[in-house]
């Protein structure tokens, strides 16, 4: 059997480990995407749709060489969401995105993991810019973008989700320590 396994680097922050998504993350993802909390990400979804979404996230690594990491707490090993880099076909620009499970919000995990992902994009991949696309009503994600230093730039008409706000992250030259100064 021929298997295609992308190299997915492991990143660590003070409290989190960013690693390859795995089948063991599925139950948490299925629970999240079955809930109303997933409304800004095309949910709620059936479990078979969530399975395909996870496969899509992993496939992005194969096609682009980067993608979303599964995020777990260092202390407990508990899966708390997926955060990473995203640039599928027809996307306006390379994106930094975050999705936290319902019981992991309000702890700063999205900001902490997104800083690590952005640092990887700028320092390893050589990105010169990045955006985050956010539903105009998603105040929690807009707050994360703001904490990351991103600013509203323009509105993008997403083919599936409609009008999305595009928040521009600071360029690499505008960041101290690759943007990881809070975790240095």
List keywords for this structure.
alpha+beta; Aminopeptidase; single chain
Report on this model:
The protein is α+β, with helices and mostly antiparallel strands and 184 residues long. It has helices at residues 26-34, 47-64, 109-123, 139-147, and strands at residues 11-12, 16-19, 68-73, 79-86, 95-100, 131-134, 151-158, 162-168. The protein has a five-stranded antiparallel β-sheet with strand order 1-2-3-4-5, with helices on both faces. A hairpin with a 5-residue loop joins β3 (68-73) and β4 (79-86). It is globular, with a radius of gyration of 15 Å.
Topology:
Elements: E1 11-12, E2 16-19, H1 26-34, H2 47-64, E3 68-73, E4 79-86, E5 95-100, H3 109-123, E6 131-134, H4 139-147, E7 151-158, E8 162-168
Antiparallel strand pairs: 1-2, 2-3, 3-4, 4-5, 6-8, 7-8
Helix pairs in contact: 1-2
CATH fold title of the domain at 11-128? Aminopeptidase
Tell me the CATH architecture of the domain at 11-128: 3-Layer(aba) Sandwich
Task: List how many beta strands DSSP finds.
Answer: 8
User: Helix share of residues?
Assistant: 25-40%
Question: Span from first to last CA?
Answer: 43 Å
Question: What is the radius of gyration?
Answer: 15 Å
What is the count of DSSP helices, taking H or I runs of 4+ residues?
4
Task: State the major sheet.
Answer: 5 strands, antiparallel
Low-pLDDT residue intervals, each spanning 5 or more residues: none
Order of helices and strands: EEHHEEEHEHEE
Provide the structure class.
alpha+beta
The rough form would be described as: globular
Quote the beta fraction. Answer: 15-25%
Give the averaged pLDDT, no decimals: 93
CATH class of the domain at 11-128: Alpha Beta
Lateral arrangement of strands in the main beta sheet: 1-2-3-4-5
């Amino acid at each position: 059997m021929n298997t295609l396994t992308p190299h997915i680097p492991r990143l660590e922050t003070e409290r989190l480990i960013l690693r390859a998504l795995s089948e063991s993350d599925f139950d948490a993802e299925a629970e999240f995407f079955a809930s109303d909390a997933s409304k800004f990400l095309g949910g709620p979804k059936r479990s078979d749709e969530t399975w395909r979404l996870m496969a899509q996230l992993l496939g992005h690594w194969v096609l682009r060489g980067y993608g979303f990491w599964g995020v777990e707490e260092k202390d407990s090993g508990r899966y708390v969401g997926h955060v990473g880099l995203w640039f599928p076909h027809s996307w306006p620009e390379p994106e930094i995105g975050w999705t936290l499970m319902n019981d992991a919000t309000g702890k700063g995990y999205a900001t902490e993991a997104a800083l690590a992902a952005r640092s990887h994009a700028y320092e390893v991949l050589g990105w010169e810019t990045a955006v985050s696309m956010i539903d105009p009503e998603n105040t929690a994600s807009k707050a994360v973008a703001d904490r990351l230093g991103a600013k509203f730039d323009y509105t993008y008409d997403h083919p599936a989700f409609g009008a999305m706000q595009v928040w521009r992250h600071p360029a690499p030259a505008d960041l101290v320590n690759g943007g990881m100064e809070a975790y240095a």
